[in-house]
Amino acid sequence: MSILDVKQLTRSFGGLTAVSHVDLTLDQGELVGLIGPNGAGKTTVFNLLTGVYPPSSGTIVFSAHGQTTSIGGKAPYAICRAGIGRTFQNIRLFKELTVLENVMIAFQQNQRYPLPTSLLRLPGFGRAEDEIRDGARELLEVMHLGHKAEEYAVNLSYGEQRHLEIARALATRPTLLLLDEPAAGMNPTETANLTRLITQIRQDFGLTILLIEHDMSLVMQICERIYVLDHGIVIASGTPDEVRSDPKVIEAYLGEEVDHA
Amino acid sequence: MKNPLVRQALTLWVPLVLTYVIVLLLVQAGVVDAYMQVTIATICINIVLAVSLNLITGFTGQFSLGHAGFMAIGAYATALVTMRFDSIVGFIGGLLLGGIIAALVGFLIGLPTLRLRGDYIAIATLGMAEIIRILLQNFEFTNGAAGLSPVPQYMDWTWFFVLTVGSVMLIRNFVRSRQGRDAIAVREDEIAAESIGVNTTRSKVLAFTIGAFFGGVAGGMYASYFYVIKPEQFGFLKSIDILVIVVLGGLGSLSGSVIAAFLLAIISTLLQPFPGVRMILYALLLIVIMIFRPQGLLGNRELSLRLLPGLRKRRRDDAGTEAA
Ligand SMILES: Nc1ncnc2c1ncn2[C@@H]1O[C@H](COP(=O)(O)OP(=O)(O)OP(=O)(O)O)[C@@H](O)[C@H]1O
Ligand SMILES: [Mg+2]
């Protein structure tokens, strides 16, 4: 059953067509890679899927919890509530807040209590806050950040910040998780850890994952299917083996190593 | 000190009640003269103005240049109501009405402008406050540029204490709740906040509306203490005055705003005998502080015992009193 159905998705910035007539489908539970050279339009696809920009043309249909949502033109927060979570390539944490607070803010979107309860500390406030805090803590444990809960986000290492981005996205209870270069800046050990974590959360949370990544070994290792983007166009798609041996892909990556995996 | 309720009682309620009782006794004994009473009133009003603007600008990150506009609405509402219904009920009603109208205006201004980013909001709020001032200057029922007087005086030390502490508490409760954290997330990174499901426009409008409400209440406090209100008292310079307190104390620090309100009042009292150099020294002081501490006195942290590591250690060593 397809959870995401993207048809002829196009987005231009002035004269530049960053994403051009992209077709893309994701089935429930799949882990799919989105790769391509720098500037290919990968992040722009994520920004279109999450409503940061509206598409110039094309349709995005997302189905989760038996509900079908047309994404085009929806506000990002509404898309998130429909079930799409994401991380950012250029990390976007709430830097001046603690690690725990970062996740709590995402978690509390599903644990709402009314304004008078907040202002007047009515009964129920403490319990609601405890639930939010405990839920957020659990997710920090999942992402191996439990011991950093009270640390300010800005003080985390690069790798930890990427983990926190994932923990925060998970706290929105997504059905589809979009990861934009989650291993960027990590050393091989950290990357191996992250690879394991990604497959684990996918299983534990029943996620469908779309992954942008330049680390080919990671992509080839865990992705079941791969889309290759170049100059905004999907030039190839298929299993890692199919994609790896596709001459168009090799050409697009001219000078870059595709097959060291 | 383990029990959080005991801890809160010791660090919050006991000092507050003591402050209230001591000032009350000093006023009754005549030790606090008329001039000092005005200073106390000014401090209280400035605290309410500063914490409410801090909610908008410091916590939610929306740069507002029109807080005096909300103050004006509250002042005129309280004045008009109490001049007609000269009773305690009229006073409380006027104060509430002022806050509600200010909140309503804040909501109506905020809804379209808070969708915009950054500088637009500063300009829109500045424009709003100027329009309010000009309207008050030209309406007949507000008595034009001459303003309103005499406004019945209901504000006394007890009212100042209750309204100031109450306002700070409510805003503190807000920023330490899910709604407040949403607002802070908007300040920190609007795109990230949206991506995790925060309705950022709604969050901004909510904080703006609540800030406007308390700006209105502060205006009511002002009107009901100072007898006379005129449109010119609520001009651009007043908005800047409030902003100075907020920035000096630290954007995103309520205790910073409270401390800054005290500090500025004390400094301006100390400089009172030197009217010639007063404004110059005042301005110089602000420049010096902004050079050496651009994030404000407390940055975006709150004053707490944790901020004073030396003090905390001493308290730990002193285990006998700690356990008691
Ligand atoms: N908001 C924007 N305004 C103008 N141009 C943009 C904008 N966002 C992206 N672009 C352009 O669109 C193209 C695709 O950018 P995008 O960030 O999607 O690439 P990418 O595949 O994610 O690259 P990388 O691997 O470097 O992250 C680039 O040429 C980029 O400059
Ligand atoms: Mg990118």
Automatic annotation (TrEMBL), chain A:
Q: Which domain of life is it from?
A: Bacteria
Please state every residue range assigned to the domain named ABC transporter: 4-256
Q: Which InterPro entries match?
A: AAA+_ATPase, ABC_AA/LPS_Transport, ABC_transporter-like_ATP-bd, BCA_ABC_TP_C, P-loop_NTPase
As one GO molecular function, the record gives: L-isoleucine transmembrane transporter activity
Keyword ATP-binding attributed: yes
- Would I find Lyase among this entry's keywords? no
Any one cellular-component term (Gene Ontology)? plasma membrane
CDD domains noted in UniProt: ABC_Mj1267_LivG_branched
A Pfam family (short name) is ABC_tran
Assigned keywords, A-Z: ATP-binding, Nucleotide-binding, Transport
A GO biological-process term: D-alanine transmembrane transport
Name the Gene3D superfamilies for this protein.
P-loop containing nucleotide triphosphate hydrolases
Q: What is this protein called?
A: ABC transporter ATP-binding protein
**Native source organism of the sequence:** Propioniciclava sinopodophylli
Q: What is the lineage of its organism?
A: Bacteria, Bacillati, Actinomycetota, Actinomycetes, Propionibacteriales
Automatic annotation (TrEMBL), chain B:
Topology class, membrane: Multi-pass membrane protein
What's a Pfam family this protein contains? BPD_transp_2
The listed locations are:
Cell membrane
Give the main localization category.
Answer: membrane
- What would be an example GO MF term here? branched-chain amino acid transmembrane transporter activity
Offer a single GO CC term for the protein.
plasma membrane
UniProt xrefs under InterPro entries? ABC_transp_permease, LivM-like
Which UniProt key words apply to this protein? Cell membrane, Membrane, Transmembrane, Transmembrane helix
Query: Can you tell which superkingdom this protein's organism belongs to?
Result: Bacteria
Q: Where are the transmembrane segments?
A: 12-32, 38-56, 63-82, 88-111, 118-137, 157-175, 205-228, 240-267, 279-298
Q: What is this protein called?
A: Branched-chain amino acid ABC transporter permease
**Species name:** Propioniciclava sinopodophylli
